[in-house]
Amino acid sequence: MSSVDITVLQNKLDLMEGLIPNSEAIKTSISKANVAWHLDHSLKVINAVVATMQNSDPALYEDNFSFIGKLLLKFRFFPRGKAKAPKYVTPPEVILEDAIILQLAEARAQIKTISSLDNNAYFKHPLFGNINKSRVVQFLEAHTNHHMKIVKSILK
After folding, report:
1. Helices (H), strands (E): how many in the chain?
2. Alpha helix (H) ranges present in 20-156?
3. Do 143 and 78 touch, CB atoms closer than 8 A?
4. What is d(CA 121, CA 153) in angstroms, rounded to the nearest whole number?
5. What is the predicted pLDDT for the residue at 2?
6. First-last CA distance in the chain
7. How far apart are CA 140 and CA 146, in angstroms?
């Protein structure tokens, strides 16, 4: 089991926490969704990914990570408006600030468990293939960056 540096994710969570007061902000020219949606979605993804990895069977892991995935992770970049969030990480119609705060606390606890995961603990990404422990922090960083950039544009 290799140690994983989660500092970058901890910093993202701190950044998200600071954005909660702007939850209602929206700029439809940038995104149909408000700031709360992007915060809620990003936290749902972090929590779902880590939970899925915790419950995965490392013996079933196969390295089928796609070239496009490698490219996008290398640059920590996801293009805008290309993907649609799967149902289980789609925020509810009404997003309560308390729900964001709870998910934030859960995410802080979840990311601390990444280091103790088996190296081949993984989750299946619909476009990139299997993402294991060695790539999960990069993936979560890139995904969160993507949504925080949108939030920054909304708040400009």
Report:
1. 5, 2
2. 35-54, 67-74, 97-112, 133-155
3. yes
4. 35
5. 66
6. 42
7. 10
Residues 82, 72 contacting (CB under 8 angstroms): no
Fill in the DSSP letter of residue 88: G
Tell me, what DSSP letter sits at residue 91?
Answer: P
Fold assignment, 7-155: Four Helix Bundle (Hemerythrin (Met), subunit A) (1.20.120)
Dist. CA 1–CA 3, nearest whole Å:
7
Cα 73 from Cα 71, distance rounded (Å): 5
Task: Tell me the pLDDT of the chain (156 aa) as tens digits.
Answer: 667 899 999 999 999 999 999 999 999 999 999 999 999 999 999 999 999 999 999 999 999 999 999 998 888 888 888 778 888 899 999 999 999 999 999 999 999 999 999 999 999 998 899 999 999 999 999 999 999 999 999 999
Taking a C-beta distance cutoff of 8 angstroms, is the pair 147, 38 a contact?
yes
